[in-house]
Amino acid sequence: MAIDPSKVRRFAHGSRVPGWDEAADLTKDPAVVPDPATAFVPEEMRREIEGEMAKYPDLRSAAIPALKVVQREHGWCSPTAIEQAACVMGLTPAYLSAIATFYDMFDTVPVGQHQVYVCTNISCSLLGADELYDAMLSAAGDDPRFNVRPFECLGACDIGPMASVDGEYVGPLTPEDCRTIVDDAIEGRPVLEGKQLKRRKKAVDHWKEA
Amino acid sequence: MPRPEIHTITFSIDGLEVKAPENAMLVDAAKYGDVEIPVFCYEPKLGQPVGACRMCLVEIEGIPKLQTACSTPVKDGMVVHTQTERVHDAQRSVVEFLLINHPLDCPVCDKGGECPLQDITYGWGPGTSRFIEPKRHFKKPLELSPLIAIDRERCILCYRCVRFSQEIAEDYQLVLLERGAHSFVGTFDGHPYVAPFSGNIIELCPVGALTSRAYRFRARPWDIEGAGTVCTLCPSQCNVELTVRDERVMRVLARDHEEVDDGWLCDKGRFAYQSVHTDERLVQPMVREGTSLQPASWEKALAAAAGALKKAGAKAAALAGGETTNEEAFLLAKLLRDGLGSGHLSARAEGELPLDVARALADPALQATVPDLEFAHAVLLLDADPIDDAPVWDLRIRKGVRRNGVRLGVASARPTALDSQAELALRHAPGTGEALLVALDAALAGDRGNLGGAASTAGSSAGAIEGLADFLKGAGDDVVIVYGERLLSGPGGAQAARALLNVAARLGLSGRDGAGLLEAPSSTNARGLREAGFAPGHGAGYATVAEPGKATAEIAAALAEGELSTVWLHHADPLRSFPDRAAWEAALGTAQTVIAVDSVISDTIREHADVVFPAEAYAEKEGTVTHPDGRLQRLRPAIGRPKGPDQQSGSGVRPLWQVIADVAERAGLELGVRTGPMASKALFEAVPFYAGLTLDAIGGRGVRWPASEAAAAFQGAAWEPVKLDVPDAVPASSEGALRLGTFRSLWSSKEVDVSPSLRFLRPRQIVELSPADAERLGIREGDQVEVGSNGTRVKGAVKLRAAVPGGSVFIAAGTHEQPANVLTEPMVEVRRVGAPTPAGAEEAAT
Amino acid sequence: MEVLYKDLDEPGLNTLKVYEQRGGYEMLRKALKMEPQKVLEEMLASNVRGRGGAGFAMGKKMSFIPKGAMDKYLVCNADESEPGTFKDRELMQKNPHQLIEGIIIGAYAIGANKSFIFIRGEYAHQADVLDAAVAEARGKGYIGERILGSDHTLDLVVHRGAGAYICGEETALLDALEGKRGNPRLKPPFPAIQGLYKGPTLINNVETLMNVPIVLEMGGAKYAEIGTQTSTGTKVVSVSGNVKRPGNYEIELGISSRELIFGLAGGPPDGRTVKAWFPGGSSAPVLTGSDEHLDLAYDFDTLAKAGSMLGSGAIIVVDDSNSIVDVALKTAKFYRHESCGKCTPCREGTNWTVKMLERVQSGEATPMDLDITASVCEQIIGNCLCVLGDAMAMPIGSMIKHFREEFEAHIEAARERNGLGAAIPQVNRGRNAGPGPMLEPAGTDPSAVPV
């Protein structure tokens, strides 16, 4: 053959979107609703998911809460995690995969247990969020215990540039704070206690005191 | 659910006053004024519009923003513009957007030439693009399943395929993953999209993103012709359009018929066309010489068959399978009855029903139609699982439940695919259909005496059966009962049928539009064969016969004992499809002459046939078949019949009506049939309630005789409930024994076996067990086990299912290996292969 | 003027005890003694407009809910995700019971028996606060069967999202709440007629619902006297970006924007001037630092007349040290990331706009690309399923309009740096123009091109 398609450059690069370049694995069986007879779900997890399902008129509303439960237990939305949630909810795993890949807070690849979301949206970036993100990457980017992600507006522009560390909002941050954040998280201390948003007073009083 | 009433309104489109049905979506209403509005995502078959592609934006006076015509119901007096600059701008914008990342690889795209994206770009696009960034490129094509290839570059994210998976088939395997511009169609964790209806997404795809791996690069749109016919691979008889290139079927498409298939096909119907062109096809007659079958001339084979039949006379019998057309059945019955004086004709593998019952079940006043499944107040599945028995009905019932609030009840031995849709799902012990029906009848009649006994015989409880009865009584007037033919089988079949008729009478289903019974037969043309008189107990049109012939099991016994000498197997494969394989081995082994007619070779033919006539595949047949709801449909030859190995005309496959007529002539009976249409005409004249039918009238859409004037000629009286006896209790469960149930998978068929694309779906023997029984027996998921009784064993892999009731075990019937029909006892033992026998276990313990 | 923010930092306000000491849940008692219709009339009279972004009158929205017994729902939209907006976060965290009280009264007015607070998943702390408050309120009988002995029953569930801006769009929120991907739905049917689980549904923002007890306390007519005639009441405005004192400020609608940016938030850092500002979150077309714009009254109608909008009430100030090109690219990337992908113009348009702006930024564009970008934005506006596409197209379009010279100067300078020479003269590349020039985009390593 004159042209080897596999050598053509456009095939050489893929997308950074997970999945686009992936074929189905034909050795697998189709992914139907997991049969409770064969799928193992820890009893605690089953009860918690069923509790979420009971809150809603339609059990599918518990899709996000159920995925949160399994993500918490497995560290990420692994195929097993999704299958377990699907089994309890009586849905196909694909249904939950569609949900898990839609929302930013679900991880469909293994990640570190400490979630560090650095806001890089407009307000924070006007105040140096991109540099902060770089600093955070150098502080913890290679540490497998950390999942450092640039995130869209976290709704705390009053403390920009800021980050959410395991759900705790801290700011305004300087690149020097990143090291402390990492240490606090590893030690299990409250993260950067002086800069926690929840301790901040309303703007009028905050700035008066400052 | 009453069907919606439709009013006609007048609206204006592009200055034209147009009449259209009120609340039709504008896209459809516009067609009444010959205005085409381009669409990608809109497909009415998929339910509510989603308005995602934005291709159909139009201007409506009084509404400031452009509106999607696919989702705007037309109202009286609406003024719509589709040709303004604003609309054109919007349309050009959408096409430009859709094409920025589309690879435009049309020259090598399978969809090229029949592609809506091409057509709409041509008709409504800007003709240029201002996008100069590199397009994104990915690996392609990728396998989505063994049947379907996916090309994600070409995908325009119209949502059609995922909506099909989620809202029509409800298998929910195909979904959109990721978000925004990253969205793509995929499955969970790289699992293939394998589901009974997956092929429909190929037809739905408006671009070349989903293509058939069997059809890819086999033809271009200008090479092909379409030929409409009916698929006869199962009783749902979907209307199909065969794509033909050079006398070969290349593809099967749906030929939408709302009253039959609603525009969907199962994957067997879509891909088993490959069985038409396979090496296993029989293309010439054969005659057994010594121990081996040898090719023979037509003359020799016809003479051999005629000679054997003539010699046998009244000791001849005939069995017909589901692919037999009405005409073939009619002529073959005539040959046996009039030419040979034999009434031994059977098309029902599981025994005959008395004539009064058969007539009552066929009563036009009691027939439900396929659309009734969608609009009834309630649908009850009685030992029927549409996914295997008549797949496309599964989608119809889901549609009814999902969109019209149809209430679904299920009473079956094996869990059905529709259980999750059902309001009420009741399990009975395998093989106790009679008791179930007697109990249900008693519950409806308030006969508590019969109820308790029958319910317990059925392995259920009086309370559960009463729950079902209350469900039926309380659901509303329009109740449709779909019953599996197997329910009315065996020694208790007649009483089961009487009970079913009682139930229908007590619910007042007779004479009610939108209510009634619908049989899910075990073979494609079961209803047509009965009506054509291919039955031991009655002639054409359920006419009384002087002396009833033998039914299937009796024919087997009589052949084995020499009471009958010759049997004609017309599309019938007893070793694979009939109960009690051993009895048939004996019968066919003893018979003097076995005449077999089929399109592909089978064990039955290879081992037992003495004379073999090659049969047409369904794509080659001419004639009629009858849908379970009474619709006569026409088969039209899409391609020529295969020639023989010498390629001479006349040497290959001949039409079967002609083969029967030729044999009859040689056996001394002139059938008077010279063409296919003459055979049809003879049939229509012989069946009183077919009076006035013509092939023209049947045409491409079929005619439902129960709704025609000729139905008045049907002989039968309204059924009055009769008193029934409680059937004998099932044998007590001995230590460790389980009650055996069988099911015939959609994929158990010779067409699947010989279609390369479908072969991966060929069912292997699996043994379905409840987790409780498995634990008791020390068996785990995936273990190899033997299921057996009286020393006969079937091997298979264990599949645990939480929905299987304890005490029952299910194995697949009609498989190409480890056939279930070797087992004849109702109770079986299940043992892990390699595990010690119970006797051995005792020894080990002591 | 502080109404919602009055004593907001009072210790323990998030507990039922302190809230009740302040007169909390008194308005609920009052409402339960009124006919639901009367409560609704007070809301209508107050003319309080939705604080979430669209500014639709709350009373009117409530009056669209069909009367009669059926499954009706009230959903509080606490998916505060509009860049620059953080008012609901502070309100929920510090005074959760007032929100709960507003929800119960609102549900009573429309006859809903089931209510939800859809809170964005990132607000973990606030969701915990709400959960605790709901539990307290339930314990006290404010939520549950036959509230305070009345015939009204209400369940309230705090539902946490999982990170998707689009869920702030009310129909996408409903899909997300039903356990689907958060894709917006076609309208009509509007949620008031067919919303959550196909039932009539009232969806309101946190701040809006927190005004409900206040309206009831003051009386609708009295409340309407605050602010301007068409923008009644107070508004919490989030001010952020290049200002000295970022934060939430509660104002009476109608004060000058200058007062907000300079008076309250302290204006840009010393030595800097306001280059541009988003008046209502990043979806609002930007205004400039000109006196004409800074002197605009901060209310719904004035801002709309000036070609922008009040939106969620979030001001982002961009000072003159920043490049407008960077701001445009940041904005466009955000919307590309958050587009749900359902409809074509938004999915493809945001993606394309980002690619063009990236070329503008890196110096591989010509001024004519600005025309194409503006034209693509035009092609998005009004053609999408929901407003997310418009929400990118409008600010980007406004930036190109107001700052075209800066864009062009940036292009020329960046081309110079890349050694590409001066850009070809500006050509009007309308949508029906011929094929594009054979430009070879620089950096042709295709792997560098984001999808």
Provide a descriptive summary of the structure in words:
The complex is a heterotrimer of chains A (210), B (846) and C (451). With 210 residues, chain A is α+β, with helices and mostly antiparallel strands. Chain A has nine helices and four strands, in the order αααααβααβββαα. A four-stranded mixed sheet of chain A has the order 2-1-3-4, with helices on one face. In chain A, a hairpin with a 2-residue loop joins strand 3 and strand 4. In chain A, helix 2 crosses helix 4 and helix 4 packs across helix 5. Chain B is an alpha/beta fold. In chain B, the strands form eight sheets. A seven-stranded mixed sheet of chain B has the order 15-14-25-24-23-16-17, sandwiched between helices. In chain B, strands 29-33-30-32-31-34 form a six-stranded mixed β-barrel. In chain B, strand 24, helix 21 and strand 25 form a beta-alpha-beta unit. In chain B, helix 13 crosses helix 15. Chain C has 451 residues and is an alpha/beta fold. Chain C has 18 helices and nine strands. Chain C has a five-stranded mixed sheet with strand order 6-5-9-7-8, sandwiched between helices. Chain C has a four-stranded parallel sheet with strand order 3-2-1-4, sandwiched between helices. In chain C, helix 2 runs parallel beside helix 6 and helix 2 packs across helix 9. Chain C is globular, with a radius of gyration of 24 Å. At the A-C interface, helix 3, helix 5, helix 6 and helix 9 of A face helix 5, strand 3, strand 5, strand 6 and strand 9 of C.
